Amino acid sequence: MLRLLLGFFFGTLPYVTLAELRTWTTTDGRKAQGEIFEIEGDQIGLRIANREYRFSLSRFIEGDQVYARKWQSQPRCKLCSKTLGTRTMEAGGKTYHTACFKCLVCKKVFKGGDKFRRDQWGMLAHVDHFSYVATCGSCGRMFAKREARREQILDSNRFACLNCLSNAVLAEKALGLVNERVKKALAKIGIGKPKGKITLVLVDKPTLDQEAKRIRASGKLKGLTLTKFRTVTKGNVSNTTFEHRILVLYGLPHTECEAVLAHEHMHVWLNELFVEAPPDVVEGFCNLGASNLLKIETNKLSSILLDNMQKSTSRVYGEGYRKMAEKLSRLGWPRLLAEMRSRGKRK
Length: 347
Fold this sequence. Notes:
The structure is a single chain. Helix content is about 35%, strand content about 25%. It is of the alpha+beta class. It folds into 3 domains: about 15-75, SLA1 homology domain 1 (SH3 type barrels), CATH 2.30.30; about 100-165, Herpes Virus-1 (2-Layer Sandwich); about 170-340, no CATH class. Strands 3-4-5-6 form a 4-stranded antiparallel beta sheet.
C-alpha cells in the first residue's frame, strides 16, 4: 500500500516526442517492430505485437542501443512510459502524467493524502476501492471487476487480464504443444523421457483442489501429478510399470503453463525413481525445472514469476527452491541429478 505524499508539482522539462514504434535489429540480423515500455539496468522491455518481452540490451545493434539509452534518459510516466510534460504528479518515488495518475475503479485523479495500491505493471487503485478490483491470477495485473469481460472470469473467483488471456492455454491440443517445448528443454538438463505414459488434463480450480485434497497435497497449486505404478515379479525378475496424470489449471498463459508443466515433469522423474526426500527438497527441486523454463523465456511475465519464486515465504516452495538453487549453482545439473537419483529406491 502506498500513500500519496505530494500533490501537483510543475517541472521545467520540455515535452519530447519520439517515434515510439520502430524496427529493432539484433546483432545476428533478426528484425522486429516494437516499442520500449521500460528499461531496467541492462534489460530492455519491448512490446511486440501486443506482447511484452525482455531482452539484454547488448542483444541489439549499436544504433538500437543508442536509441534505447536516449529513451531512458528522458523522464517518463511510470504508467504509460511516455515522456513527461509540465503537469505531473509524484508518489512513492515515481512520477506520472496527471491524467494517468488515477484510480482504475473510480477514474478520479489521486489527491494528496490518498492511500492507494500499485501493482508491478503500474496500475493504481484506491485502497478503499480494492474490493472492486480484480487481480490477474498469473501476472498480478489489477483491473476493475466491472470492466472485466465474461471470458476473463475463469472459475472460483479466478481472473485473467486481457494480456494473459490472449495467449492462454484453453484446450488440451494447445497444452500438448506447450508440453513438447517443455520436454525438449528438460532433456537438455538431463531429464529424459519417462518410462510410463503421461496423460495431460486441463482442469478447473475446484477439480484441482479436490484432487490435491484427496492425496493431501497443499499449497496454491496450479498443477498436480498423480502417479500409479504396478510391479510384477517373475522368478528373480521384477518389472515396474507407471501411469502418470498431470493436471494443469485451465487458462494459464503459455509462459506460466510451461513452468507448471516443467515442475510436474520433475515430479514424474522423481516418482519413477521412488525418491524419498523432505517436501522442501522435493518441491524445491521441481521448482528448478520451472525456473529453467522461465529463464529461457524473455517476457516480463517470466521475470515476475521468477521473482515471485525467489521471494516466496513458503518454507516448502520458497525456501526449498532457494536451497536447491544454491545447490545447483555448486554442483551443476549432472551432479545434482546423480544426488537425487541416489535418494531413490530405483536407481
